Amino acid sequence: MTQKMSKFKSLKKTTKVDFATYLGVIVVFAAVSALQSGGSLTRSAIGLLVPICCYMSMAVSLNLTVGILGELSLGHAGFMSVGAFTGIVVSQSLLDSVTSAPVRLAIAMVVGAIFAAIVGLLIGTPVLRLQGDYLAIVTLAFGEIIKELINCLIIGHDENGLHFIFNPAGNKTVDDLGLSATGTAIIKGAQGATGTATIATFTAGFILVMITLIVVLNLTRSRAGRAIMAIRDNRIAAQAIGLNLTKYKLMAFVTSAALAGAAGALYGLNYSSLQATKFNFNLSILILVFVVLGGLGNIWGSLIAAAALTILPEALRQFADFRMLIYAIVLIFVMLATNNPQAKAFFQRLLPHRRASAEKED
Amino acid sequence: MEFLSYLISGISLGSVYAIIALGYTMVYGIAKMLNFAHGDVIMIGGYISFCAMFYLGLPNIVAVLLAVIVCTVLGVVIERLAYKPLRSAPSLAVLITAIGVSYFLQNSALLIWKAAARVYPPVVEGSIQLFGGRLTVSYVSLLTIAACVVIMIGLTAFVNKSKMGKAMRACSEDKAAAQLMGINVNATISATFAIGSALAAIAGVLLCSFNTSLMPTTGSMPGIKAFTAAVFGGIGSIPGAFLGGLLLGVIEAMAKAYISTNLANSIVFAVLIVVLLVKPAGLLGKSVTEKV
Amino acid sequence: MTQKQRERAKLVPVSREPALLTERDADKSPVLECIDLGITFGGLKAVDNFNVTIGRTEITGLIGPNGAGKTTVFNLLTKVYQPTHGTILLNGKDIHDLNTAQVNRAGIARTFQNIRLFGDMSVEQNITVAMDTQMHYTMPEGIFRLPRFWKEERAMHERAMELLSIFHMEDLANAKASSLPYGAQRRLEILRALATNPSLLLLDEPAAGMNPSETAELMENICFIRDTFKIAVLLIEHDMNLVMNICEGIAVLNFGHVIAKGTPEDIQNNPEVIEAYLGKKKEA
Predict the structure, then answer these.
(1) Of C129, C164, C196, which residue is a domain's last?
(2) What pLDDT was estimated at residue B69?
(3) Which residues from A are below 8 Å from B80, CB to CB?
């Protein structure tokens, strides 16, 4: 009898947390939507809605690689980039054939996810056997490579289909695509994508976040998640119990890439012009900061950190020049407070009820 | 002759990367952390020397010395304030803190000196003509290569022969044991950061002389590349940083000249990836096997 | 059989050293045969000429002074190290080309000298993750929570609880593995190894850090495990009380060589073994 009850209780604990996360996202979305339709949101706030959803999805997907698999990835923005430009190409090519914008957006996001997954598979297969910092530097390298490769792409679409030029020497232009009179150029080399029809919506962002949550949370709570965490906790013991390391590392990495690709597609279709240089090392680091601050392996933490740290610079706008400086100082301070043993003890003394409940958990 | 010109250009660029990479690798060897703020200390070195030359009208060598002193102090202060409290924290936490410091330095520079690119006067002017005028090598290039060689020899001698160098090697193997042997670990780590930051200042001066321009983001990309070079050569290995930096510079220069300017960085990174797949611990790195 | 296998088979000596098979196992094929197994690191022969056969349900002890190469033998059997010479036959099959994970799936499970639990996972998760190779639902079935997910998870949960009941650890199921006391962690490692359904269980110093009453309980548990699951056990131990009492066959290792093999009585009276542990008797 006690066995059944403890199973019931344990299932309930993680499921409780998961449902609270879903509920939280639904409630916040509903509230913000209400504010938006009620006209209470400023224009800059409305402009942040889709990016925040994208960043949330990016943070949760990166948490799968960094927090749950335990491998540092410094090139996550690269997958977002692949998804963004694939999504833009798909959406713009289908402008005439698929007139419904939401359907086009959905197709773009799915295709973006697939392409990002393929890139993730191609990169992950040779690279995931490297360890620690060496793996990190290679992911960084791939992020930069993807950025430069996309900068060399010239893509256009006309009634004959898609036209590609790969332009490493920088000497070709849109005219070399050979488009017919009714064709349009979608990606113009270093200029990036311009003239994109912006079909991204907050609702789509909400759906993206929910799907990301369902995939990552359910994966983590399934046998694949256990295997992935075991590899993180003790690679040698994981091998000793028969786990196929490559299979599970790739599973985490590729899933993470696919979700980033979908987020990228949504992001790309939110702006009428977008350059590949936007998806640089700084963006990868930005997402990584969300993940670390929210807590490695802590999915709802990533959501909150992504939202808070995107809103923070905007909220600090009044400080104009100083706001990034304050952001930096806040970041350093928070890292010190959450990791330094003396600081942690200090804060625990300040919050006696937190300490009591922490002791109870042990 | 063109090839030689590109090669020399690559070697001097590589020398700068090597000097920066030495700072990364020394700090990693001892503190086991990737100091992402290192690239921005380079930038600060550039700005200090620029101000000394431009606003204070100091002679170039004094300006360089001033930059070295300021950066050394800056490096030690950063270590004490931001990294020392996290010595027992997981390495990812220290990484993010380093990123915070990097943001801090970049935005401080932005506030103080504004975003506009400054024209940086090369610390030595002029060039020499070789092979009857067919090859021009700037004094900056020569100085850079010479500086790199001197630093390399000096650092190797220091680490292998001096007492502090021995202390550094001990700390990088086992901090706790070093402390039990009476080594002042805090002082050793501070000294490492001091040396690394001094090297960064020199690299900053040379880099800006090379490019003749300076912005708050100047240190960012060279920092990433030098970090790549350090890993390429085997992170924690001083000869590895030297080798990695030089190779990186040469590959970059050759790629820019003969293949594509737009893809030069990609080619460099692609070479890095291939090398790491073949030698997972870098060119001169030692792979640490876990005892089962 | 491939050409390589055929050639390697020729290396198998026709007359092998007599195995210490108990009457119980006399009619069954041995679970493990090590034939001239060895590994050389650089110039150092860490393990050499290791010839040991283990019966299907035999408890075998591997003893010897520190540094004799006992854990190295475990690492060879689990392919953490690739042998430089010799053959390992597990259930009659050569495991030469298998890696560590494949060896586990073929039937060898182990515990480690320094505990290697999945610290941030719960006690139950440490066991259910070891049952991963026995579960078959796919990633999409896991994400979309299709019926096979629920069925297999429930079955594995029940099996995990059964295993935990061997050491009376059911109410610790949700505790974080790293929060357990040392002895409980060692026991959990044994259960995790058992969960992989092995034919041969390798225990590396299972009684380390245990007091006499815990050791006595462990001895009972090892016999219980052998009797219930009908598997063989090879254990490395320094606690002679445990070794002499539950091991049916013992091999003594010194400087990488087997210096004695036999029943506990044989070993206790073997002068070479005594010399290895206590040193040579000083001439009067």
Answers:
(1) C196
(2) 95
(3) none
C5 within a domain of the structure (yes/no): no
| C132 and C99 housed in the same domain | no
Interface predicted TM-score (ipTM): 0.87
Q: Would you kindly state where each structural domain of chain A is located, as residue ranges?
A: 17-361
For B97, the closest chain A residue by CA position comes to A332
Which residues 253-292 in chain B show a CB within 8 A of chain A?
Answer: 259-263, 265-266, 269-270, 272-273, 276-277, 280-282, 290, 292
Query: Does residue C9 lie within any of the structural domains?
Result: no
Q: Based on the fold, state whether residues C160 and C30 are members of the same structural domain.
A: no
Q: What is the CA radius of gyration of chain C?
A: 20
Domain range spanning residue C123? 117-196
Instruction: pLDDT band for A189, please (50, 70, 90 cuts).
Output: confident
Is residue C146 domain-shared with residue C261, that is, in the same domain?
no
CB proximity B77 to A under 8 Å: no
- Exposure of A284 by Cβ count < 10 A (0-12 exposed, 13-18 middle, 19+ buried)? buried
**Boundary (domain end) residue, out of C143, C172, C196:** C196
Domain A17-361, CATH = 1.10.3470
C225 close to C159: Cβ distance less than 8 angstroms: no
Question: Of the given ranges (A240-244, B127-131, B243-247, C52-56), which has the lowest mean pLDDT?
Answer: B127-131
How sure is the predictor about C282, in pLDDT bands with cuts at 50, 70 and 90?
low
Query: Does A151 sit within 8 Å of B269, measured CB to CB?
Result: no
In whole angstroms, give the CA distance from residue A25 to residue A307.
11
Q: Does C199 touch chain A (CB under 8 A)?
A: no
Instruction: Tally the domains of chain C.
Output: 2
Q: Are residues C98 and C221 in the same domain?
A: yes
- Closest residue, chain B, to A127 (C-alpha): B277
Does one domain contain both C29 and C95?
yes
* Sheet strand arrangement including C200-204: C108-110, C200-204, C232-236, C59-63, C249-254, C257-262
Contacts of B292 in chain C (CB under 8 A): 71, 75, 80, 112
Instruction: CATH number of the domain at C227, please.
Output: 3.40.50.300
What are A87-112's pLDDT values in tens digits?
Answer: 999 999 888 888 888 999 999 999 99
Question: Do C142 and C258 have their domain in common?
Answer: no
Does residue C6 surpass a pLDDT of 50?
A: no
Q: Do A144 and B265 touch (CB under 8 A)?
A: yes
pLDDT, mean of residues B171-200 = 89
Q: Do C202 and C284 sit in the same domain of this protein? A: yes
Q: Report the share of chain C in percent with pLDDT over 70.
A: 89
Q: What share of chain A is helix, strand, coil (3-state, %, to 5)?
A: 75, 5, 20
C71 is a domain residue: yes
> A168 and B262: CB-CB below 8 Å?
yes
Q: Would you report the helix, strand and coil content of chain B in percent, each value rounded to 5?
A: 75, 5, 20
CB atoms within 10 A of CB B287: 11
Residue C75 forms part of a structural domain: yes
* 8 Å CB contact of A331 and B100: yes
Hey, which chains touch C, using 3+ CB pairs under 8 Å?
A, B
pLDDT, position C280 = 64
Query: Is residue A171 scored above 90 in pLDDT?
Result: no
| Confidence grade of residue A359 (pLDDT, cut at 50, 70, 90) | very low
pLDDT band at A162 (very low <50, low <70, confident <90, very high): confident
Same domain, C103 and C121: no
Query: Phi, psi (5° rounding) for residue C20?
Result: -90, 70
CB-closest option in C125, C132, C143 to A215:
C143
- Region A322-331: mean pLDDT is 83
Residues of B in contact with A335 (CB under 8 A): 86, 93, 96-97, 100
What whole-number distance in Å separates Cα of residue A140 and Cα of residue A204?
29
What mean pLDDT comes out for the span C103-130? 95
Q: From the candidates A137, A277, A333, which should be mutated to test the interface with B, based on the most B CB atoms within 10 A?
A: A137
